[in-house]
Amino acid sequence: MQEELLHSVVKLTKTRDVDSLESSLLSTIHEFIGCQEVSIYKSISLKDAADVECCLSLQVIEGKRYRWSQSEKVQSPSSELLSCLNSACIIAVQSNDGIERRWVPITLADKPIGAIAIVSKGLGSSEQVLLNAFCCIYENYLTILHENERDKLTGLLNRQTFDKKLKQLIEKQVLKHYKTTKSQQDRETHRETVSWLAMLDIDHFKRVNDNYGHVCGDEVLLILAQVMDGFFRATDLLFRFGGEEFVLVFEPATREEIESLLYKFVELVRITKFPFVNKLTVSIGVAKVGPYDFPIHVLESADKALYFAKENGRDQLCFYDQMEPPQTPSRDEDGDIDLF
Ligand SMILES: Nc1nc2c(ncn2[C@@H]2O[C@H](COP(=O)(O)OP(=O)(O)OP(=O)(O)O)[C@@H](O)[C@H]2O)c(=O)[nH]1
């Protein structure tokens, strides 16, 4: 038993990304603690505590068969899950048929960000100790992985993780696409709700540095990142690509939804009071992320649209497929930015 336990800890800490860490955690919990179901829930929004997603779930069906399910928005989270998320305390309830439901909070930087939920026939004290220990190992390792994926100044995702995260999103999209669309005609109609990538760049940022110095420039960058973090949903991927350039990846939405969201953001930046500078504006280039696109091509398209927005007055957004022909050359060709 001790040897197996050690192996499971080694296996858990061997993973290098959050998704494999989570599937490893659930299979380890299932292996060592008899349960019917074990799931990971995460808060999606900082503003609304009831906005919760079930990221991954392992369910035992008919003794030795399992079913995995992932990324499902929880329509009405149970009151126990919500109190676990709000209080960061373990909650356990037992029904008359002896089935126990237990929620163990997951915290990151002292903030509850989710919970592990386990359905069992009741856990003995040694099983509870084991479950809490697995959750602590997961939490500690999650903190390390989280720090490695983040930009040190702004706390947003860093450029090194971009390829991996975008590939994961595209893979999920392909899977969903095939699950939900049976015929070629269905696939055509589903193209309307694709994911979107936006490349965002601060206008005339050099002037901020030149007038007030690099340290003040850094503070402006930090505040802009906080504004972004507060405005977009937790499921949107926000990257700092370096300097004053950011990349945002949104989950499937219609063009109208993304356009309206980004217009609101451009307006929000315009009216936000930043330190030192009187006025700050951003330009944004937007491109579709289709299920069969290569990340580099999507990035190049968004970059061209961003260049177009800059060339045509800044403080605006431009969609790649709505640019006026002839298309402007990518800044990549000018040697202005280095894509990979
Ligand atoms: N403070 C700070 N400045 C940075 C950082 N990285 C890059 N920069 C600065 O960002 C500025 C980018 O300037 P440019 O590429 O000329 O673009 P811009 O002045 O924003 O003009 P447009 O993009 O054309 O609107 C340069 O002054 C860089 O030194 C950083 O990490 N911190």
TrEMBL record:
| Known EC number | 2.7.7.65
Under which main EC class is this enzyme filed? Answer: transferase
The record ties this protein, via Gene3D superfamilies, to:
3.30.70.270
Q: Which positions carry the signal peptide feature in this UniProt record?
A: none
Q: Which residues cross the membrane?
A: none
Name its GO BP terms in alphabetical order.
Answer: cell adhesion involved in single-species biofilm formation; negative regulation of bacterial-type flagellum-dependent cell motility
- In this chain the GGDEF domain maps to 193-322
**What name does this protein carry?**
diguanylate cyclase
Source organism, top-level taxon: Bacteria
This chain's source organism reads Pseudoalteromonas caenipelagi
Entry GO MF terms: diguanylate cyclase activity
